[in-house]
Design goal:
One of its GO terms (molecular function) is nucleotidyltransferase activity. By secondary structure, this protein is an alpha+beta fold. The chain has a single domain, classed as Toxin ADP-ribosyltransferase, Chain A, domain 1 (Alpha-Beta Complex). The chain has a five-stranded mixed β-sheet with strand order 2-6-10-9-4. The protein is globular. The N and C termini lie far apart (about 40 Å).
């Protein structure tokens, strides 16, 4: 059995203070990442086609953010398992992150999309469920996080279709409903970012199933603006918000980011895919 912990190596970047700088890098980054991962390119192509069929679903998200959410939910071909494994595993150094983490664009777009959706509505928490096939260990009172983009559902029955080895009952205050952007809207998905932390309030076992209850506690990120720091800040200081390494109390979300249109990025990505 694996133990639920703080996923200390997780690529938990919130891009605090550098989102506009990251935005300028997206087109070139996406081109190079497509070249190294054909499944990623195919998933993006299918998600783009679905977005074009549906049309815009939100007044606060740009096309590339909506497409990223759709790409994340696509099951065939599936990208989210490989993506989340890479997010959770992380990289031991910024240099390795720059060279070997091949989902910088998807990570950034998902992170910024969840923040924009959260900031556009009164800050609220959700009671959600997550089912996985394997048994996990946890101890009441521990602070833990998923350390990846964790798919959950507002519907417990739906969550259990994904596995009954461990069933999570979660109060999340940074997860956001993404039903409108999913290939499977009936799943009532709420997507939790890697940096949200939880208190384990209960662990019970019945037969082959472990039930773990989690209560929203804080936000905690070890990394912040890693790509921008490596590219622009080697020879000059950059003033970014510090990472929340001490896991402060749960706070209110920040100001909504103003996004400029990236139609060139969208069209270029579609052509390359």
């Amino acid at each position: 059995e694996n133990t639920l912990d703080m996923a200390p190596n997780s690529l938990d970047d919130q891009y605090l203070g550098c989102r506009h700088m990251m935005e300028k890098e997206l087109q070139e980054l996406n081109r190079t990442e497509f070249e190294t991962n054909s499944i990623y390119a195919e998933v993006w192509k299918e998600a783009t086609a679905e977005w074009q069929r549906r049309g815009p679903q939100s007044s606060v998200l740009k096309p590339e953010q909506e497409i990223a959410l759709m790409a994340y939910t696509l099951e065939t071909p599936s990208l989210y398992k490989e993506f989340n494994a890479a997010v959770r595993a992380g990289r031991p150094s910024r240099e390795e992150y720059m060279l070997k983490f091949q989902f910088k664009v998807l990570h950034f777009l998902l992170s910024s999309a969840l923040r924009a959706l959260r900031d556009a509505q009164p800050h609220k928490c959700y009671h959600v469920f997550r089912g996985v096939s394997n048994n996990l260990n946890a101890k009441p009172g521990d602070t833990v996080r998923f350390g990846q983009f964790a798919s959950t559902s507002l519907n417990s029955v739906c969550a259990e279709q994904f596995g009954t080895g461990t069933i999570f009952s979660v109060q999340t205050c940074y997860g956001v409903p993404i039903k409108k952007f999913s290939f499977f809207p009936d799943e009532d998905e709420v997507l939790i970012p890697p940096f949200e932390t939880f208190e384990v309030t209960s662990v019970t076992r019945k037969g082959n199933t472990v039930r773990i209850e989690l209560r929203a506690q804080a936000v905690c990120n070890k990394y912040n603006c890693e790509f921008v720091k490596e590219k622009y800040c080697k020879n000059q200081p950059c003033d970014f918000s510090a990472a929340d390494t001490d896991c402060p109390s749960l706070n209110s979300p920040g100001q909504r980011v103003s996004w400029d249109p990236l139609w060139g990025f969208l069209l270029a990505a579609t052509a390359l895919a």
